[in-house]
Amino acid sequence: MNLEDTKISEAIINTYKNKLEDVLHSDVIIVGGGPSGLVAAGCLAKAGVKTTLLDRKLSIGGGMWGGGMMMNQIVIQESARHIFDELHIRYQEYDKNYYTADSIECVSALTLNAVRSGARILNLISVEDIIVKEKCIKGLVINWSTAEMSKLPIDPLMIESKYILDATGHDASVVSKLVHRLGNILSTPDGSPEGEKPMWAERGEEQVVENTREAYPGLYVCGMAANATFGGQRMGPIFGGMLLSGKKTAREIIKQIRA
Ligand code: 48F
Predict the structure, then answer these.
(1) At CA 190, angle to CA 188 and CA 191, rounded to 5?
(2) Candidate from 29, 43, 56, 143 with most ligand 1 atoms within 8 A of CB, to mutate
(3) In what order do the strands lie in the sheet with 73-76?
(4) How far is the CA of 133 from the centre of ligand 1 (A)?
């Protein structure tokens, strides 16, 4: 069988172009493919919501790959075990309320679930700015991550969405861009990001779910970005709260879309 070099290029260029064109208009754009963003993507897409997930890195998975201090095991607690069961992720009971799982299996399963549920995932794309009209976030300004890294003066492209989900982890990078552009306009007590608080796993795990909500019209926060925005403790390599936060935000956005 013949294999033409340029046919391979043509296949990639044409099919990627279709993907990119398809993400011009989404119901929800999730920025960040860590555990919370991936769970949200899976739930939203499964519910028939047109979902796009962007991540600036080559690999999706955020901080989950490295477990704790590069030991690729993670811990979850009882309240999140049902999510592992739903996604057929294997785990072991270490002690009462402590379950361990292989972080590589977790990221792979969360990613496959999101993609197979119908979420469009684009890696190597960075969000560099936001589109705000009539006091509501309407979309994002994106660029190749390589353009961001090279610091070359390359103009970006724009994509639209009904809702944006900041799942960018500790940086809460969409929230920070919003505040950078428009000042302290968040739904926090003084309108500014409240910032992450020190390590306290038990509190942080509860707060990450409580703090998962709308931070500005059209902009939701989940995962560590929720604790960075609404002020929650950090919790390290326990991931139940991240998974529950992803589920909660998907539920809330679906409710809004269907209202
Ligand atoms: O940090 P990250 O894994 O987010 P998360 O879902 O989970 C946090 C945990 O991993 C861990 C923890 C658990 O106890 O504390 O930290 O809150 O993933 C965030 C993803 O967002 C991407 C980044 O590459 C990472 O994969 N990201 C960040 N800023 C941008 C971005 C941006 N401006 N554009 C695109 N992607």
Answers:
(1) 60
(2) 56
(3) 73-76, 98-102, 92-95
(4) 26
Residue 190 and residue 197: Cα distance in Å, rounded?
Answer: 17
Query: Is residue 1 predicted with pLDDT exceeding 90?
Result: no
- Bridge-based pairing of strands 157-166 and 219-221 is parallel
Answer yes or no: is the C-beta of 137 below 6 A from any ligand 1 atom: no
Q: Letter for the amino acid at 222?
A: C
Mean pLDDT of 121-131: 98
What is the DSSP code (8-state) at residue 34? S
Q: Are 110 and 35 in contact (CB under 8 A)?
A: yes
Show the DSSP H helices in the chain as ranges.
Answer: 5-22, 35-46, 81-86, 103-117, 145-150, 173-182, 201-210, 224-230, 240-258
Domain map of the chain by residue range? 27-258
Task: Determine what percent of the chain is predicted with pLDDT higher than 90.
Answer: 100
Report the Cα–Cα distance between both ends of the chain, in Å, rounded.
54
Q: Rounded to the nearest whole angstrom, what is the distance from the C-alpha of residue 6 to the centroid of ligand 1? A: 36
CA–CA distance, 106 with 214 (Å, rounded to integer): 27
Q: Which atom of ligand 1 is nearest to the CA of 36?
A: 6
- Three-state SS at 128: strand
Distance from the Cα of residue 129 to its chain's centroid = 16
Q: What is the pTM of this model?
A: 0.98
CATH of domain 27-258: 3.50.50.60
Mean pLDDT along residues 133-142: 98
Using CB atoms within 10 A of its CB, is residue 209 exposed (0-12), middle (13-18) or buried (19+)? buried
pLDDT in tens, 86-119: 999 999 999 999 999 999 999 999 999 999 999 9
DSSP 24: T
**Averaged confidence pLDDT in the chain:** 98
